[in-house]
Amino acid sequence: MEFFLITLLNSLSYGLLLFMLSSGLTLIFSMMGVLNFAHASFYMLGAYFAYQTGMVFGFWPALFLAPILVGVIGAITERYGLRKVHKFGHVAELLFTFGLAYVIEEVVHLIWGRAPVDYRIPESLNFTLFTLFNTQYPAYRAFMMLVSVGMLVSLYLVLTKTRIGLIVQASLTHPEMVQALGHNVPRVFMLVFAGGCALAGLAGVLGGNLFITEPGMAFSVGSIVFVVVVVGGMGSLVGAFIASLLIGSIQTFSVGFDLSFIDLMAGLGVIIDSNSSWYAGLSITISQTAPVLPYLLMVLMLIVRPRGLMGTRET
Known about the structure:
Elements: H1 2-32, H2 39-57, H3 59-85, H4 90-112, E1 128-132, E2 135-138, H5 139-161, H6 163-173, H7 175-180, H8 185-208, H9 217-232, H10 237-256, H11 261-267, H12 279-282, H13 293-304
Antiparallel strand pairs: 1-2
Helix pairs in contact: 1-5, 1-8, 1-9, 1-10, 2-3, 2-4, 2-8, 2-9, 3-8, 5-6, 9-10, 9-13
């Protein structure tokens, strides 16, 4: 019971962090049709900006300043980059964002070096929130979940209950009509792209000190984000939320199981002979397959339901 409850809490915190990161990518794709390969790089920038500004102002100002800085860079990227290549089609946009990811990584190397930086959890949140059985649960993970849920509620209210949200949704389906009513649709797209990048930056602020802030962090998390978007459904925020919790649970729970497939089959009454050609493959533990499981889920989803759990686009 202790393992289950603690792992469940950890999977919730990790899943909500994945949603915070994938929601920005989903928002950009649903609004602009751009699959931003550099999205995880903005996550990395959020962590580095929080580290740098935190050294001067502290963690709490950095929590607000870093996402704003990342959003500004996102707005500049859309205005002077994506908007220029948009007329050449989606392939040009993909190549642009793919190259941008490498540019950002090299800039990080030049400024902060190749070694991890000392970005730590703030002392004000570095304490035990409660003790469950014999395990102490850190307050910072609870704070991450609180911010993620607050972001989810705020994003829902902005998109569905405000005038800005109505303009954003109308620009998605009827851009010519929105333009005729006097709204600057390209500016709306720029703000949406900046907002999606800012959400990635916020995820970097919260996740950078819990895990590790180093130049390879964008590559390590970027592929998982695309798995979340594909499984949840391209352009669906609800699907991204469900997929984030699902993949967070799969990865977190599988890491904690040190049972091999031979042990599982033995529990079902199937005994594998040690001389069998299958023995070496089945001796792999579940924890060893944990990094592969999200990608297997994505492959199965593409075979069974290509549009994802809640997606509406077939292509």
